[in-house]
Here is the input.
Amino acid sequence: MPIIEVHNVSKDFADDKNKIKALDNVNFNIDEHEFVCIVGPSGCGKSTLLRLLAGLDFPTSGMIKIKDEEVDGPDPKRAALIFQTFGLLPWRTVSENIELGLQAVGTIKQTRDQIIEKYVKLMDLEEFSDARPYELSGGMKQRVGIARALAVEPQVLLMDEPFSALDAITADMLRKDVLEVWADPSTKTNTFIMITHLIEEAVFMADKVIVMSKRPGRVLKEVEVTIPRPRVEHARDPAFFELCDEIRNLIG
Ligand SMILES: Nc1ncnc2c1ncn2[C@@H]1O[C@H](COP(=O)(O)OP(=O)(O)OP(=O)(O)O)[C@@H](O)[C@H]1O
Ligand SMILES: [Mg+2]
Here is the structure.
């Protein structure tokens, strides 16, 4: 039984004059404990699809189910969404930013403190728990964003180009850390979906890459990545480049 089911999802945006078809009959399933990346040309509806999964917008037709329940609006316990721009509250410390989602779902103070401690540790933020966002590098800010999303222990974590605002070295470290957190049995959330425009990043991170067409976005192919983990040696693995080429040729 898949944890996420996307059935015949189409999405149109309309203003006074024009109708834009953003997504056209998108279908896929995602299993629990899968790491899925979505790639496709700019404007093909990737962010739109993630917003639909998060319940922040609704399909024009079709249906999305998470854990057999139709997504009918945002629910922090169902899906958490993190952005490339971090979205932290500047007047709150790192711990207080992580606490935000827990307060929203009504977790009691003592439990909140335990959960904050756990995710501060998991994302290597111990030294910074009392710092405010302006004191942090971009990489640290994104760690807080991820810790905050995971702290609520949602069924799925949704990430929209989470590393694209970071320098290459920081992004590289964070990729590995996110994979470690995903594989860590103490992390309650174990289904991760990430949008990226970097094909190499997708093949490095994912169990499955969903390749989308140019707008209106359709699923061209679901590419399984069976390269063994950890994939630190991918730079020397011909299978890695074959998959990247396959995806690049699909997108055209
Ligand atoms: N709220 C909206 N109102 C009108 N049009 C929208 C809205 N959101 C998205 N669109 C349009 O839908 C299409 C898909 O946008 P979306 O942001 O999902 O693409 P994307 O694949 O995430 O692109 P990128 O790779 O550049 O981030 C675009 O043509 C965009 O202009
Ligand atoms: Mg986008």
Q: What stands out?
A: The CA atoms of residues 39 and 179 lie 18 Å apart. The radius of gyration is 18 Å. The pocket of magnesium ion (ligand 2) is lined by residues 46-47 (CB under 6 Å).
